[in-house]
Amino acid sequence: MPKGLWQDSELTQLLNGYTSTFLLGATMKLRLLEAIGDSTVTTAELASITSTHAPTLTRVLRALAALEILIEERPDTYRLAARGRLLLPDTPGSVHELATYLVDDWTWGAWPALDQAIRTGKLASEFAADTGWQDIDWTDSSEMRDSVDRLMIEHTRAIAPIIVDSYDFGPFSTVVDIGGGSGPFVATALAAHSHLRGILLDREDGVRHAPQVLAEAGVADRCEIRTGDFFESLPSGDLYFCKSVIFNWPEDERVAMILANCRKSMLTEHGRLLLVEQMLPAAVDGSIPPSVYLDDVGSVVNLGGRLRTEPEYRALLDSAGFTLTVHPLPTAPDGFVLLEAAPA
């Protein structure tokens, strides 16, 4: 007989997953983990520090200990576990910015309308009232925009050394980072290769943290920051780099415009375009984690965009005058690969 709900614990966990999300969301909003820090505290002490209701807090702390966010050293006395420390902002390897993004109301608020997105092909956020998503001005310096910027910097800094170590940058002189935001990739590449010069291209609001990022890497004197629209034109160079940009555009026609501009602006037939994207296998085969597919569905909820398979990338690049070579990145997270496009 097939397993019922109560016999299939993994299915039960899937159905109940929202509870841990909301628990961690409340924990971060109240800054409970930051209040504990390096200390060992009782519930009463933590309740006093955070102005919370001690009897309710006791139940929350027990749940956090069960999830290995905290360690209950003795009854009613807690300290941070290693997993909990990763949720602090200044811990090496921190996921604080990612967690802040995922548990915020405007990130998850439209998920209950996913069925409407499936019916209509529109974003779920268009059907969800009061999520705050439509009210976000992505061109301003709001707290949420700053949080997303920091998340993108952290994510690119994690993957950039893998790319720099796995690809030969020796033949090239100028790397153009398309839609590179604050420039963590071009900063990493230039720091590793003293012969390279860089051009960072993004919108004006996108590059506002770039001077600091480039200065911290010691490469500000070798990287020019430009503002512009990659749908219109691109600076000339012999190596173009584009991370997590193609994903943002579900329409192939829009992607084709970016790729065509890369091909048109490339200085030499020996130039290359490097795309770093998550790539889906032709069929779900267990080669990438379920979280990648959930990310793709997440783009149906709020962001727009979509993930693609190798044949889809190959067709897009072929139409723009490129041939494709796929370089797996075994140590990169979440199905990211390096797609090397050479002029056909």
TrEMBL record:
Q: Does the keyword Secreted apply?
A: no
Q: List, for all copies, the residue spans of the domain called O-methyltransferase C-terminal.
A: 111-322
UniProt entry keywords in alphabetical sequence: Methyltransferase, S-adenosyl-L-methionine, Transferase
Q: Known Pfam families for this protein? A: Dimerisation (PF08100), Methyltransf_2 (PF00891)
Gene3D superfamilies in the cross-refs = 1.10.287.1350, Vaccinia Virus protein VP39 (3.40.50.150), Winged helix-like DNA-binding domain superfamily/Winged helix DNA-binding domain (1.10.10.10)
Instruction: Report if keyword Transit peptide is assigned.
Output: no
The record, for PROSITE patterns, names:
SAM_OMT_II
The O-methyltransferase dimerisation domain extends over 13-89
Query: What is one Gene Ontology biological process annotated in the Swiss-Prot or TrEMBL record?
Result: methylation
- Under the GO molecular function aspect, what terms does this record hold? O-methyltransferase activity; protein dimerization activity
Question: What name goes with this protein?
Answer: O-methyltransferase
Q: Which organism is it from?
A: Tamaricihabitans halophyticus
At the highest ranks, the source species' classification is: Bacteria, Bacillati, Actinomycetota, Actinomycetes, Pseudonocardiales
